[in-house]
Amino acid sequence: IPVSRDFSLERVLSDPVTIREWQNAGLPADDLSVENGIIMSNSRRWPLIIDPQGQANRWIKNLMRDNNLAVIKLTDSNFLRTLENSIRFGQPVLLENIEESPTHWVRRGVALLCQLDD
After folding, report:
1. In the 8-state DSSP scheme, what is residue 67?
2. Phi-psi category of 26—alpha, beta or left, where left has phi over 0 and alpha has psi -120 to 50?
3. Which of 18, 100, 32 shows the shortest CA–CA distance to 63?
4. What are the Cα distances from residue 87, in Å, to 8, 63, 69, 70, 80?
5. Tens-of-pLDDT digits for all 118 residues of the chain?
């Protein structure tokens, strides 16, 4: 198996133009933030972001500003309607302030699911 001593996730899975766009949208320029952005953008599933400083939240909002990003919380009165419409029309959704409360999380086999309503 060929091995490189100077391996960079940045060179393999992304390009400098994309990374610069992310940084212009508010992604910090440190290696960890860039690598997290690369992993997030190449994932097939939605990411769960633990973001105590709010940097990723601002970055995603700036990055998706022109794509009709819906920002919702579990406590919003129109939560389900907004989520359903976003899924139906293929628009991005940012679900904020998800707690680790057992009232919202249900384990089914190996999957951990978020229960949206009763």
Report:
1. G
2. left
3. 18
4. 35, 19, 11, 10, 11
5. 788 888 888 888 899 999 999 999 999 999 999 999 999 999 888 888 888 888 999 999 999 988 999 999 888 889 889 988 998 999 999 988 876 655 567 778 887 777 766 5
- DSSP β-bridge partners for residue 107: 112
Q: What pLDDT was estimated at residue 27?
A: 92
Other C-beta atoms lying within 10 Å of the C-beta of residue 67: 10
Cα–Cα distance for residue pair 29/32, rounded to 1 Å:
8
Query: How many whole angstroms separate alpha carbon 18 and alpha carbon 16?
Result: 6
Q: How far is CA 81 from CA 4, 89, 94, 96, 97, in A?
A: 49, 12, 14, 16, 18
The structure tokens listed for 34 are 């860039």
Tokens, residue 51: 């973001």
End-to-end CA distance of the chain: 52
Residue in 57, 62, 69, 64 with CA at minimum distance from that of residue 98? 57
**Which residues touch 42 (CB under 8 Å, ≥6 apart)?**
13
